[in-house]
Amino acid sequence: MQLSEQEIIRREKLDTLRNLGINPYPANLYPVDHTSKQVKEDFSEGKKVIVAGRMMSIRTQGKASFAEIQDSEGRIQVYFNRDEICQGEDKTKYNEVFKKLIDLGDFVGVEGELFTTQVGEKSIRVHDFTLLSKTLRPLPMPKTDADGKVFDSFTDPELRYRQRYVDLVVNPHVKEVFVKRTKLFNAMRNFFNDKGYFEVETPVLQPIPGGAAARPFVTHHNSLDIPLYMRIANELYLKRLIVGGFDGVYEFSKNFRNEGMDRTHNPEFTAMEIYVAYKDYNWMMEFTENLLEHCANEVNGTTDVTFGEHQVNFKAPYARVTMTDAIKQFTGFDITGKSEEEIYQAAKGMGIAVDDTMGKGKLIDEIFGEKCEGNFIQPTFITDYPKEMSPLCKEHRDNPELTERFELMICGKEIANAYSELNDPIDQRERFEAQLKLSERGDVEAAQFIDNDFLRALEYGMPPTSGLGIGMDRLIMFLTNNPSIQEVLFFPQMRPEKKALELTEDEKAIAEILKVSTQLTIDALKLQAGLSGKKWDAAMKGLAKHGLVKVTLEGDTKTVEFKG
């Protein structure tokens, strides 16, 4: 492992601490009794406190020093005085341990009393301190100059998402996003619980991937010797519970879809789904707008939020537009009564990429997605979807070509999806079979399985039910003004981290020569490297294998070019 100069120095300090009899990673409890926030909010001169956190700044002035400790609630200034900490003749703890062996980023506990500095800053006068954990890597500490300009900020998204633990330390404002995320879940959970609905858990590993049209992740169970699929949705299991006698169930569900990644999609994501017996999609629309108004207030203290260039108001009620009217409004095309071929030709004429694997529902979905959904900025319910788009949804009571379904659109993105649930087992079987035929035509998103156990459950009878699904990651993006899903996930999925090349000493020697000259004849390079035949051959082969050198022949002369 290649260590930087700073990392080497910190390891040397680690050894020095141990030689002084100081355990840099003590196991015993440290009796913290105040956070930095509690110190400031309940401040009184002379009050005894014990706090702990990371050392984030140190200003040494001879036998006295000021520093800042950062804990989970913020920062607090601490004052170290040599004679206060070392009251006897031995000044090692201050002169050696504090001044020379404590680094920025180290976890330190301090005991002391509160006082106010001459410039009015609430601080802790330290009587004693304890090293709680020695850091071996320096934190990327942002610096602010006299004009307020910030330098060396830890802002590279690739590094921030991959090393979220560092991001949270040096960019404390990032934590607020995740505090709000937890507030959102709590607000939603309390809203459901107050209405008497029951939180449940359903399987993540499933014998049949159902409840949505998506490509699953596949694994294998060794003992049962069967394939299993990671959950793409929990809908069919929750509806089984309605069959079983629950009037209202909900789940915050980790779902997994083996599909693309972008600023609004992660292969692992969180959805909330709720199913309530004896309700329909009209009731669910009102329920949804009241739920989101409540959540916005609980998370931000207001229903007004900013998302990019848009001001969005979550206050109920929300506009309602049928899908047919939306497509007609933004394309001039009326899908009512049209055949699959007519819709295919219309989509093609609009410049939408279509192919022969797409059924009627997929074609309509493409038209709406390309031409309509981006126009809906304020919360809007898009209602009454064509039957072909909704294999789990009840047929519309007034139009057999449609279903009783809505999606909630905000800033051109779907936030929620809801149905009057299909509870006719014969109709449901026919819908599943139609989806299976689409899959056989090549539609990779169509359902590839028929869940016969779910159909059996429906045959035992499911009462009229309405269900709602909300993408929790996308919702918190809107509530915190984050255009990227990676900003609202602690640990988003990332491409594999590129490993640093480990070169031999001979390879390094040749590489260093080429870094200076960029290109040399092979004879000149070999002369400068001063390597024997075997060592030379091995080093050049290694560099070529890593793609760091390119050898070209011009006439009788071989030239080596550095490609690193």
From TrEMBL:
Chief site of localization: cytoplasm
UniProt entry tagged with the keyword Hydrolase: no
GO biological process assignments: lysyl-tRNA aminoacylation
Cofactor(s) the record lists: Mg(2+)
Cofactor, how bound (note): Binds 3 Mg(2+) ions per subunit.
Positions annotated to bind Mg(2+) 1: E407, E414
Location within or outside the cell: Cytoplasm
EC number: 6.1.1.6
Molecular-function GO term, any one: lysine-tRNA ligase activity
Residues engaged in binding Mg(2+) 2: E414
Any Gene Ontology CC annotation: cytosol
Superkingdom to which the source organism belongs: Bacteria
Pfam hit, one: tRNA-synt_2
Catalytic activity: tRNA(Lys) + L-lysine + ATP = L-lysyl-tRNA(Lys) + AMP + diphosphate
Enzyme class: ligase
UniProt keyword terms in alphabetical order: Aminoacyl-tRNA synthetase, ATP-binding, Cytoplasm, Ligase, Magnesium, Metal-binding, Nucleotide-binding, Protein biosynthesis
Listed PROSITE patterns: AA_TRNA_LIGASE_II (PS50862)
All copies of domain Aminoacyl-transfer RNA synthetases class-II family profile, residue ranges: 181-496
Assembly and interaction partners: Homodimer.
Family per record: Belongs to the class-II aminoacyl-tRNA synthetase family.
Protein name (Swiss-Prot/TrEMBL): Lysine--tRNA ligase
The species this protein was found in: Flavobacterium cerinum
